[in-house]
Amino acid sequence: MREHGGNLDLAQQRFGGRAEDWIDLSTGINRLPYPIGEISAHHWQALPSRSEIEALHQAAQHAYGASAPVVAMGGAQAAIQLLPRLAPRGLARILAPTYNEYAPVLSVAGWQVEEVRELDALAGADLAIVVNPNNPDGRRHAPKDLLALSPRVGHVVIDESFADAVPEFSLASEAGRPGLLILRSFGKFYGLAGLRLGFAIGHAADIDKLAAASGPWPVSGAAIAIGCRALRDEAWAKATSARLLRDCARLDAMAHAQGWRLVGGASLFRLYETPDALAAQERLARGQIWSRVFTQNPSWLRLGLPGAEAEWTRLAEMLAR
Question: Which of 18, 60, 199, 226 is deepest in the core (most CB within 10 A)?
Fold first, then answer.
């Protein structure tokens, strides 16, 4: 497995403790998850029906403001694995630095992969990848700039895994355009990454390809039931987005007091420049708080947002030591 957050087993090996003792801030997953409530036995025992899957697609269209076709998958990562099938092999350009699964997935499928630093440099590619907001630095691109890019590439894929709290940056409403594909993660914003649920939204021809490659039951009955319930809960989404905005400011203030500089971030994580990220990670780990560091940049430390007030208190105490 490539370097990712969520590697709590490594933290336990190095610093001890049980998984339940740790506050895992190494990911961008909401630590105050959606309350799933009761799930009927039917959703665990029966194969999902076409009508149930279609109900989930409609819930996703409603939540994301999309009218284009949707296909549910086992997380946004499942869609990433299938991207090489969108078109004949050619040149793929990725706006980097970004999520580190795109380049190897395309390379192993025989695509020529180039990483570029500016949006305009994606032009001319057969496949262009933009993560918006970006992971790990939170860089954002205006929808009009991304739409202007679309006619200049074969396919443009916009990964909106961290866009739930900033819908004004989403292009889901434009996803019916030929060559434009939007990826959405359910598990991050709703705090249910273990459910393995995500969506691709796009032109019918592309969605048909992805749906065919995903097979007849791409997500579980439980994922359908929980997804339908959560995606239609507008009050929860609105309240959560407002809370995350406040929590980002709160975490930034705590980091600033340490002399850390904000590099950027999204609504579920913040990226800071520190004198020594490994030292900062170890300092927090001694209080069983796990963070993420980056081998390519030894000064970068990424923190997700604490959830319950007790987690904020523990983080403050460790930073104060």
Answer: 199
